[in-house]
Amino acid sequence: MAWNKVAVVGGGLIKFGELFEQSYEQMASGAFDAAVASVDKGFDPQLVEAAFVATQRGTLWGQEGIGGNTVPTAIGLAGIPCTRVENACPSGSDAFRVGAMAVASGVHDVVLVIGVEKMRDKSGDEGLLARAAAGHPVYTRGETAPVLFAPFATRHMHEFGTTREMLASVAVKNHFNGARNPNAHFKNEITIEDALKSAPVCHPLHLLDCCPQTDGAAAVLLVNPDRVAEFTDDPVFVAGFGVATDHPYLHEKNTFTGLRATTMAAERAYKMAGVEPGQIDCAEVHDCFTITEILDIEDLGFVEKGKGGVASLEGETAITGRIPVNTSGGLLAKGHPIGATGVAQIVECWLQLRGQAEERQAEIRNGFALQHNVGGRGSGVSVINILTTNR
């Protein structure tokens, strides 16, 4: 039986992209306003009892003291308890999990979870992501995110015959979905040939195999299920979640054809929610690179190990496929503002379960959607949340 001790009654985000004209606080305010406006029966912002802010702002900018403590003032709620959650790429996912536990514990009845990230105001050579991925000075020499994920792609190719065309098919599918998402960073469709001919980054990954750096913000409102009727007659519940960690350095890995943190987190989330992979109607998964989505759908149990590339190429993960994946456009097209990413994925799952995803709407049969992030040094942490409409 699903956990169902927390309900999601609202969710929204701003348009992702290169938002030089907006401050960090303006982005947060926009996402909060969108979440408030989405609540069916209306929502008084003063009902929010606590906020959990997902951001790497301090890590990325060298200003750890700022964190998320400017957000309550930015959204007109100065004085409420506010906690910053930073857990690498799954920061937003983990903030959602922590917010859910705050409601389930009975400490708070109404909680805001908000993710905000400003990625584009500094260039890569100023150490934006290098600071976040810093580690041992020898083990990490020359490492970038593509360098970390390329070995997984080459090993998957070696062991299972995965091709660059299969990788490219992930990018094509996610750009197709992103073109139908008004809040996506990139709204252009591409072809497999476009992906194959894009600039090489780190073999076998090319430019269109990689997600962009993106500015963005997203927010969700969580409430005690006993109070759901105040806000909506169409609630979505938190069915379960799972978190796991793995070794941070590549030389410590025991496989390059899967991400151990994801498989462990998935086992925990499925057990808590009382579901099997085959019962998931749609999923938002971490596609920082095309190979990552292929690994994800295998590690999450949607396809057999080694068959992720074939499944992607054959359309099993398309909106009309057997298991729609990244209907939002994913990180590849929607963008990857680190702190906001997981929260935005939750918003997409919420919309899908409520049948409000418009052109991106998948068929909802069982009433379950899964959200997943993996990240940190060596993909050393994974967070999974499962939502449901089943009461």
Describe this structure in words.
The structure is a single chain. Helices cover 33% and strands 17% of the residues. It is an alpha/beta fold. It has 13 helices and eleven strands. It has a single domain, classed as Thiolase/Chalcone synthase (Peroxisomal Thiolase, Chain A, domain 1, 3-Layer(aba) Sandwich). The strands form two sheets. Strands 3-2-4-7-1-8-11-10-9 form a nine-stranded mixed β-sheet. Helix 4 packs across helix 13 (338-353) and helix 7 packs across helix 10. The mean pLDDT is 93.
Distance between the termini: 10 Å
Question: Reading side by side through the largest sheet, how are the strands ordered?
Answer: 3-2-4-7-1-8-11-10-9
**Low-confidence parts:** none
Strand content: 15-25%
Number of domains: 1
> What is CATH's topology name?
Peroxisomal Thiolase, Chain A, domain 1
DSSP strand tally: 11
Largest sheet: 9 strands, mixed
CATH architecture term: 3-Layer(aba) Sandwich
Round the mean pLDDT to the nearest integer and report it: 93
CA-based shape:
globular
The CATH homologous superfamily: Thiolase/Chalcone synthase
Assembly category: single chain
The total count of helices amounts to 13
What Rg is obtained from the alpha carbons, in whole angstroms? 19 Å
CATH class: Alpha Beta
Structural class: alpha/beta
In helices, the fraction of residues equals 25-40%
Order of SSEs, N→C?
A: EHEHHEHEHHHHEEEEHEHHHHEE
Present the secondary structure layout:
Blueprint: E1 7-13, H1 24-38, E2 50-54, H2 57-61, H3 71-74, E3 82-85, H4 91-104, E4 110-117, H5 128-132, H6 145-160, H7 164-178, H8 192-197, E5 200-202, E6 205-206, E7 216-223, E8 236-245, H9 260-273, E9 282-284, H10 290-299, H11 308-313, H12 330-333, H13 338-353, E10 368-375, E11 381-388
Parallel strand pairs: 2-3, 2-4, 9-10
Antiparallel strand pairs: 1-7, 1-8, 4-7, 5-6, 8-11, 10-11
